[in-house]
Amino acid sequence: MNRHGTIWIVQILAKCPKCDAGLPLRGADAPSAIKCGRCGHEIALTITEPVRTDRGVDRCPVCNGADFYTRKDFDPKVGLTVVVIGAVISGTFYWFGKDLVAYAVLASAALVDLVVYGRLKDLTVCYRCHSEFRGAYARTAPAFDLHTADVLEVEYERKIGRR
Ligand SMILES: [Zn+2]
Ligand SMILES: [Zn+2]
């Protein structure tokens, strides 16, 4: 449970080390191993307690790495839906000649957009295997750093025999 009293579940997009396919998982009931749906590769998963209970992402279940970055989750569908709903509502008010209300609705739609993107839409990404994490946990990982990415990706690809 988080501080709002809601039970959140971390959504994980595990990346297959062999073929890079994205395999969706839930942190709370993830199995100890999954099979890649695309290439059949068996992936062992080690889900730590913070990941399982949505308190933070400390270790990557796929590659065991502990280096992550936070980035904005560009989900064009969410942004677009908010804008469309806002436009429809403000259009309705506009039809009745209530300009001010229309602008207020547009402004609040933009605000909702900002809040959605600013908080819940941040995702955590593993530097090594690029697995993605979404949940209500506090984002502690720093922003993307190209140098760190270069170093860790090479290290990981050597480890799994891709280089
Ligand atoms: Zn695969
Ligand atoms: Zn990883």
Features:
binds zinc ion, elongated, 163 residues, alpha+beta, 36% helix, 2 domains, two-stranded antiparallel ribbon
Helix and strand topology:
Layout: E1 11-15, E2 22-26, E3 33-35, E4 42-44, H1 49-52, E5 68-72, H2 76-95, H3 99-118, E6 122-126, E7 132-134, H4 146-159
Antiparallel strand pairs: 1-2, 1-7, 3-4, 5-6, 6-7
This protein binds zinc ion (2 copies).
Residues 60, 62-63, 65, 126, 128-129, 131 line the site of one zinc ion.
Average of per-residue pLDDT values: 84
Quote the distance from N terminus to C terminus: 42 Å
Bound molecules: zinc ion
* Main sheet makeup: 5 strands, antiparallel
Describe this structure in words.
By secondary structure, this protein is of the alpha+beta class. It has helices at 49-52, 76-95, 99-118, 146-159, and strands at residues 11-15, 22-26, 33-35, 42-44, 68-72, 122-126, 132-134. The chain has a 5-stranded antiparallel sheet, with no helix packed on it. The chain is elongated, with a radius of gyration of 20 Å. The N and C termini lie far apart (42 Å). The relative contact order is 0.19. The mean pLDDT is 84. The structure holds zinc ion (2 copies).
Give a brief description.
By secondary structure, this protein is α+β, with helices and mostly antiparallel strands. It has helices at residues 49-52, 76-95, 99-118, 146-159, and strands spanning 11-15, 22-26, 33-35, 42-44, 68-72, 122-126, 132-134.
